[in-house]
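Hi X.,

You mentioned you wanted examples for the new student's onboarding notes, showing what a folding record looks like when two proteins sit in one file. Here is a clean example. The first protein comes first, with its sequence line followed by its structure tokens.
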Amino acid sequence: NIAMAAQMTDSHRRFLQILMSHGIMEGSEARKLHRHCCEIHKVYYAHDKLDDFINTINVHLQPLFLGVECSRESLDWAEPVVNLAETEITKMASDYAENELELFRKTMDLIILSENGFASSTEILNFADQLKTKKMKKKEAEQVLKLFVEDKWLSEKNGEYTLHTRCIMEMEQYILSNYQGVARKCNICHSLAIQSQVCETCGIGMHLPCVGKYFKAQTEPHCPHCNDFWPHEIP
């Protein structure tokens, strides 16, 4: 219904409908979907025009306070439609108990304040019996972590947890407000950057992939904001 109301072209409408049914979609799959939608509706397709294609969808969705967003923090993901009018952690209050939300906040602290953007299951579970709202047994905490992964707030691999793309996108304002000095907007793509390089002179930050792309053709890298020498290793 949203897609119909937005009066988009058939190719844009099909892309949005499939994306909404899938939820989070990897960038490679989003590009395949873009090509499929263009070809099936016989419209011009260019492999490097996915961003423009999504921007066109967002123009139509803006009056509905909705939008398709792509995360640069996770490098290669396309985000599902999200309600841009509700992006705070309070959205989770109806789905989780108070002690579960407290465990989630502590997990976010560990991840965002870490050097590599990850927190081990051991680190997280150590908080289970220290919660102020209501203590958890470790087995119970393990189930809660599993639920956070299933609901796409966290991602897990080999016992290491990080923020899922959904969390990065929907909690952007919460993260920027509560982790000032650590989280910032990328100066290049203007999306949330948690793991980034920061200019030592003016303080602007850039995602690592944005750093690599921006300085790729430069023999001597200089900050895009203040033009001082960029002292960090280029990815």
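Then the second protein repeats the pattern, sequence line and then tokens:
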Amino acid sequence: LAGTVPEEPRCTVERADASLTYSLFLQRFAFSRPVILGGITDNSAFRALCTREKLLAAFGPFPVRLSTANTYSYRKVDVPFQEYVEHLLKPQDPARLGSDTLYFFGDNNFTEWGPLFQHYVPPPFRIPGTSPAYSFGIAGSGSGVPFHWHGPGFSEVIFGRKRWFLYPPDKTPHFHPNETTLAWLQHTYPTLPPAQRPLECTLRPGEVLYFPDRWWHATLNLDTSVFISTFLG
């Protein structure tokens, strides 16, 4: 499956570079629409610590908590990190339901993973009155999280490519909460008229997506991917 999950025909999320000031970020994006930020941080040192070999050497025997990849995710499964990487980190089965698909994102033990996160350089922008919390993930090609919403945040790709689909709070997407993003892309997305399609774009390593409060979003890893989000709570 690797390499067969397509990118979008055209990125419809606005982009900005390191010239974007904090005041302009607050004025143009923070409370109104998503933006892809390029060149605002340098995480080459963090990326060097996130190779398969380095992560297995540092965290192999430690347990990680996996979540089911559905919108209302209740089931959690704890497995050793090495078992996840060697046996569960596979391309998404298109026929598998979200409730049967295990996904490693967040639920990290900060006692064990904290030293790694100290090397991460977060985006320089904040929303007044919030504080940041990290969620780190690794997932196979074709995997992802179906549509859901929560508070604002940033997401950065460390390895691989990650396709995003976003709708504003007042435009609830048409989806089944137990359908994986891959199944939604294959079955529902082609039936949507252009006016009902989401904002979408593919993030590459070093790019950061910002999404405002309560925006619907779904993700799809186009490759085996390593990624980290900074949630603003």
